[in-house]
Amino acid sequence: MKRLTYFIAISITPLFSYGQVYLNNASFEGTPQDATVPAGWFPCELGTTPDIMPGPWGVYQEASEGDTYVGLITREDGSWESIGQRLPQALKPKECYTFTLELSHSDTYAGYNKPLGVRIWGGANKCEKGQELFKTGLIKSSEWEEYEVQFVPKQSIRYILIEAFYKDGPFSYQGNILIDNISPIKKCVRASLD
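The structure assignment produced for this chain is given below.
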């Protein structure tokens, strides 16, 4: 038993020494189906019913990594979808962090065909929008594109939230954003002090 404990301790030590934080189900693997939150994630916005793709709603684009990915939408009634998860360890204030994710758009998402972007938030509590970490413009390409996120937490971050986004303020817009392959969160070197 002591050997097993020692082996496990030695095996996971490199993960923490390099400062990497691994998200649970970072490539949104699961059985393709509509109105289903991928394992490891939870809904944050009222009415969030993400879709595990490909297959539902006429979206057949291949995954960037693995077999599946997630689709989030915005609706004519002004509602939008967002998902989040608790990080396995807190991100510390005044440290620089970076990760990547891949984004795409579908022109065949059962009428929710307009392009969207994403906003990524960090917070101390579940679904909290404590600090905006990243925001894209509209993603119009049906090809997967990698985006780098780099940020410095103002306070400790225990949760991450990803939301479909169109513009600041109220909107009524039927759009979609496809998300896949989020890399581990790593420490980075800040180019300049905030």
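Interim note for the steering committee: Confidence is low (pLDDT under 50) at residues 1-17. The first strand starts at residue 42 and ends at 43.
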